Amino acid sequence: MAQRARSDAGRGGGRAVSVLPGSAGEGGSLSPRGRATAPARDANGAAAPAALPRRAPKAAIDIAIAQLEEAVRNGTVDEEAGRRVVDQLKRSRPDGAGELAGGRREHILTVAARVIARKGFAATTLQEIADEVGVTRPSFYYHFKSKQAILGAILVSALERAEVAIDEVLAGPGDSVAKLRAFVFKYVEVNTQHAEVPALFQAAAELEPEAAEEARRRRSAIDHKLADLVAEGVERGKLRSRSPLISAYGMLGATNWMHTWYRPDGRYSPSEIAGMLADMLVYGLAAREAGEGR
């Protein structure tokens, strides 16, 4: 292998009141029929802690979650307390912890990217994203505490897709020229399926430090994997490049900026565009036969 070419969060401000009466709240539980029972209280009237049944029916827990989220949305339950109880309910559910399923998370990120791309990062609110996704703001806030958090998730997810694309190419058949062409095809496919995302990298300065570092690390990995592939082609006499890393930047840049001109209803399909870009980017690096000039 060739040597590597180097070169708000904020809390909801609802009233601090007790958790929804008649539902599974702090100290509440679920009856066998799925009805939420009132929490036990001590001599001072405070809710006594009690754990939810480990094997409460999933449907009953889902009902309790929906009721609680509705109460939070109506302002009858404090947001922070509501999130805490929703967390407890989801963790007691038979299908596991309160993490978003992969498909659901991908849907939320896709919708959020579309909203932010349309309105701009500064002008977009979490409420607008939650409305378009079709969930309550407290439910959305449980998973993404701020606009910065969801932007970070969108950008890191995009970089993960790009890294998967190049890893699949590197593991596949063919020489460096064939692999570079395959990468262009895969990367064009990724960028046309998620056309709103590349423009959002212009808001990367808004990322929280941890997400910014992960994005930087993943982007650097992609740059250098592609540069290594170019360098390998140079070593084997298949490609020409004075700087494989700059060549990698050029290839990625040409596809990353597709969002400025690509139209889904345009004359050319993504596959045709990929073919034209691959010809230009890869064959432009191809080593020339003796007598053809520099």
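Above is the first protein from milestone M3; the second protein from the same milestone is given next.
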Amino acid sequence: MDDNYRETMVKSLIITYWNRKNVSKSVGLYDCLKQTHNKFKLKFKDKPAFNRFYKERINFIAQLPSVNVHLKNKAKSEQNDFRLNSTSDKVNDFWEEIERIDKENKVRKEYRSSIDQHLREEKKYLSTVHLKELQEDDAINEVYDAEEENVSTGYKSDEDDDLDMAENINNCSETNRENSDDNKDFGDSVIPVYADTFAERLECQPTLGRTRRWILPSGTDVSEVLEEYVKTVPGCQKCLK
């Protein structure tokens, strides 16, 4: 609050206090001081202004011809005893208490300001740390999402493997049935000379202890034909082994 404003308030309250028609025994500097403080919280720095304005007002009333006689006499009495009244014990105690309150308020204000400053710095630090943690979490999540996307793109589930295996087995079973039908129609005939120059090995699921079959593109099982042909060769013409 501006000092000029405080002085204006103190002056106006002193004028209001002496703007009276009746004068009681309690009217005086100390009573004016208490009422001014009740309406406008005085500070210790207001002491010089209060004394100056109070002295000016009682001098003005003491010289005013149209004022009430009792009021004029009271103003003259206050004028004569001003030095004594302004330094009395109760007035000094009043200003000492005001000074003590001012010091406590100052310490409290400085402490509060220090706490506020500390809290602002702590919030600023925590905000910086939290922001950094959020940025690090975002970076980790981006890397994790990218890895998940790569794995999902090149990943083949167990169900897909099972479906592929089942399809392969079905294809092999169908091929085996077709070859069996062709072998029944072939009978005891020998291998034709005009057969294609290559033969396809059909290896569905290799199993230990089983002979691999040799199937021609036409579907002829070469091993069966050879077995039938060997039966027609005389025993003396067969190899010993």
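Note on the second protein: Helices lie at 3-18, 29-39, 47-62, 69-80, 82-86, 89-154, 158-186, 222-232.
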